[in-house]
Write a structure and sequence with these properties.
The complex is a heterodimer of chains A (135) and B (520).
Chain A (H helix, E strand, L loop, with lengths): L8 H10 L17 H19 L8 H13 L5 H4 L6 H17 L2 H6 L20
Helix pairs in contact in A: 3-5
Chain B lengths: L1 E2 L4 E6 L3 H12 L4 E4 L28 E3 L6 H4 L25 H5 L9 H15 L26 H12 L5 E2 L37 H7 L3 E3 L3 E7 L6 E7 L5 E11 L2 H11 L17 E11 L15 E3 L16 E5 L20 H14 E8 L8 E8 L5 E6 L4 H21 L3 E4 L3 E6 L25 E3 L14 H17 L1 H4 L1
Parallel strand pairs in B: 1-9, 2-3, 2-9, 3-6, 4-15, 9-18
Antiparallel strand pairs in B: 5-11, 7-8, 8-9, 10-13, 10-16, 10-17, 11-12, 12-13, 14-15
Helix pairs in contact in B: 1-6, 1-10, 4-10, 5-9
Classes of the chains: A mainly alpha (135), B alpha/beta (520).
The complex binds flavin-adenine dinucleotide and iron/sulfur cluster (SF4).
């Protein structure tokens, strides 16, 4: 998603995974903690499925190829997914989770509200968009 | 290490909607009350306005295994810590209708309640006055009789006005949404600021949550709340006929036995049956075999749209602005399925999180998503149908073979919608889509069936063989063991449950006080 990398998506996920007070959306979605395995197995499956289809690493895909691949994982596991990571979550579910994480970091902050012209109107402002105060 | 503090009059498990109300009423009459709350202490200052930080308020006790075609969404639908789910609930407080109490007698299906609307009406009226509900009884044409709302209705912003146009065009009615939040200052609590942060917990006291209402009062009256205290077992005397206390685990693992003259379970619809099932072979108070059975969750029928107009979708309360209950009474007269539903119209919405507009259309990604986010920020509109879920005995909480850190079996929640409830959910989506067309939406889409609220699992009834408690939440098998909360509902209607939870709890508290010597 445009902006997600700059907004620190991978730092956000790493931070939450290592935090006592994990705030990832995955909490809602009937996945048993700990969640590290969810992301690592899905990323492995993602890479292997991309390699199987394009003979490239995900970072080497052209924008059109990436879009095509993402569209292909929305409904079902792409070829190579199940075999590559037997414990990996279903591809459409992983897509949903990662997309939601990306929306969290890109649009869930005070600065992002401002950029969308949405008044934040906080009662209590977060010290940080997503890092816990208590750590 | 074991500890045995002094015996108390009443031990209440859970500090949410039901537990806090029970505690305030019993402590006011001089009973020594201890609330045991599994989650941490929360204060108004912890309620940070952020949809990411808000997740801290959700259930984070031991996991609940969920199975079935339409799982109940325990983490999203439950809270943990001071005030329970009620701390971050949205305050949509309609009443059940008279029909809801006698579905079996009227239609020969589902179940009857052991009471009628008229039995509960005085309690609805009293709670409404204590808590302060904003609404307009005259315009809420579907509402069963009772006192006028003590507060004027909540304001309607752009989003509400535009969607209301669709209802009007199709000849449907709308009224202000009855909300347990202050449209103006009420008693010592301030008016709402219409900023839509209710899901993160309202720290000002504008919304009637346990922190704003009953918990501080309970403490003033000498009641005590112990946090990080997870109850694992209810203790009974040798004959198993009387509750004598509970065992709970403190954060440091210490096992504490709290003796009490009365035990009240207000641990919500999943953990209360779990506790009963774990407290005796075959389950405590389970002569009927129904502890855990008939778990229900309203099906959320979501309708989303983009409009040409400026919608100000960020304005208002998270619960919404307007109500329609045209598809409520005469449960057998729906286009599809059976039951009742209502529309909660024009909820204040943020960009992110499960209910944020960014999550409503998962097929969008990349530049299309960016474009959508920019457009939706000003032009998004939405409404949610709260669709009745008929009770099904097989939808139930059972104990898993997996155990928590204290060695107690985890609960498994199995839930699949009744086929007529599923059909009704489809009918609601179709109707909602027509309404959005009439309102002038340029794009319309729906979300999947989302579970909303959790009810049932320890249902009340007249007969001990067919229910777990009587109409006061008193267990048929054990006189001094009570249950409070939406777990008592034999059917759930198509309205949000918490006003009814309050009315039932108030009624039970009066019964307990009146019959104290005989019960204990
Ligand atoms: C996001 C959200 C929005 C909602 N919006 C609305 C709305 O607009 N209108 C409406 O009517 N309803 C709404 N609800 C539902 C409402 O919150 C519940 O119906 C209500 O809080 C139930 O009250 P309760 O006391 O039974 O449970 P809760 O309020 O959940 O309290 C139960 C407490 O018991 C504690 N507990 C559990 N197990 C144990 C144990 N073993 N030992 C000790 N403590 C334990 C929990 O930690 C929790 O604090 C909403 C719920 C959510 C999650
Ligand atoms: S919108 Fe009103 S009730 Fe909701 S958090 Fe803000 S002030 Fe509180």
């Amino acid at each position: 998603m445009p902006g997600a990398r700059a907004a620190g998506l991978s730092h956000y996920i790493d931070h939450q995974l290592s935090s006592r007070d994990n705030l990832l959306i995955l909490r809602y979605l009937r996945v048993k903690p700990p969640f590290d395995g969810f992301y690592s197995s899905a990323l492995t499956a993602f890479e292997q499925a991309v390699r199987k289809r394009y003979n490239k690493n995900p970072g080497e895909l052209a924008q059109g190829e990436m879009s095509e691949f993402i569209t292909s994982i929305m409904q079902k596991n792409p070829e190579g997914w199940a075999k590559s990571g037997e414990d990996a979550p279903p591809a459409p579910f992983f897509y949903f989770v990662l997309r939601s994480d990306a929306i969290d970091v890109t649009y869930g902050t005070m600065a992002a509200f401002d950029s969308l012209d949405i008044p934040y109107m906080a009662h209590i402002e977060p010290d940080h968009a997503w890092e816990s105060r208590r750590e | 290490m074991n500890k045995y503090p002094e015996r108390t009059d009443v031990v209440i498990v859970g500090s949410g909607a039901a537990g806090s109300l029970m505690a305030v009423k019993l402590s006011k009459s001089g009973k020594k009350v201890i609330i045991l709350e599994a989650g941490p202490i929360r204060k108004p200052g912890d309620l940070i306005s952020s949809q990411i930080h808000a997740r801290r308020l959700k259930w984070s006790g031991e996991p609940v295994e969920e199975t079935g075609a339409q799982p109940i969404g325990n983490v999203f639908n439950s809270g943990y810590g001071t005030g329970g789910s009620a701390l971050h609930h949205y305050g949509v407080w309609p009443r059940l209708h008279a029909e809801d109490f006698k579905v079996k007698s009227l239609y020969g299906r589902a179940l009857d309640w052991p009471i009628t609307y008229d039995d509960l009406r005085p309690s609805y009226d009293q709670i409404q006055q204590e808590v302060g509900i904003s609404g307009d009884k005259a315009r809420e044409i579907w509402r069963p009789d009772g006192a006028d709302y003590p507060l004027p209705p909540v304001p309607v912003f752009q989003q509400g006005e535009i969607i209301a146009g669709g209802f009007k065009k199709l000849g449907k009615s709308i009224s202000p949404l009855p909300l347990a939040l202050n449209s103006r200052d009420y008693k010592d609590r301030p008016a709402c600021l219409w900023d839509g942060w209710c899901d993160a917990g309202c720290p000002t006291g504008a919304l009637a949550n346990p922190l704003a209402l009953y918990l501080p009062q309970t403490e003033k009256q000498g009641g005590k709340i112990i946090h990080n205290a997870t109850v694992s077992r209810i203790l009974t005397d040798d004959g198993g006929k009387k509750a004598i206390g509970v065992i709970y685990h403190a954060d440091d693992g210490t096992e504490i036995t709290q003796m009490a003259h009365m035990v009240i379970l207000a641990a919500f619809a999943v953990q209360t049956p779990r506790l009963l099932l774990n407290s005796a072979d075959g389950g405590l108070a389970n002569r009927s075999g129904l502890v855990g059975a008939n778990i229900m969750s309203h099906a959320a029928a979501t309708v989303y749209g983009l409009f040409n107009e400026e919608m100000e979708p960020y304005m208002g309360a998270t619960g919404g602005q307007l109500l329609n209950q045209d598809s409520y009474d005469h449960k057998d007269k729906r286009t599809k399925g059976f039951g009742s539903y209502q529309w909660m119209i024009a909820q204040a919405v943020k960009p992110n999180d499960l209910l944020g507009f960014g999550g409503t259309n998962p097929a969008l990604f990349g530049p299309k998503l960016t474009e959508f986010m920019q457009q939706a920020a000003q032009h998004f509109g939405g409404m949610t149908g709260c669709v009745e879920d008929l009770p099904v005995q097989e939808n139930r909480i059972t104990l898993s073979s997996d155990k928590d850190k204290y060695g107690i079996p985890l609960p498994t929640a199995d839930h699949a919608s009744h086929k007529d409830s599923y059909a009704l959910w489809q009918a609601a989506k179709e109707e909602g889509t027509e309404i959005f067309k009439a309102a002038g939406a340029t794009h319309i889409w729906n979300g999947p069936l989302g579970p909303m609220h959790i009810m049932g699992g320890t249902i009340m009834g007249d007969k001990a063989e067919k229910s777990v408690t009587n109409s006061y939440g008193q267990c048929h098998d054990i006189d001094n063991l009570f249950i409070a909360g939406p777990g008592l509902f034999p059917t759930c209607g198509g309205v949000n449950p918490t006003f009814t939870v309050h009315a039932l709890t108030l009624r039970s508290s009066k019964y307990i006080l009146k019959n104290w010597p005989a019960i204990t």
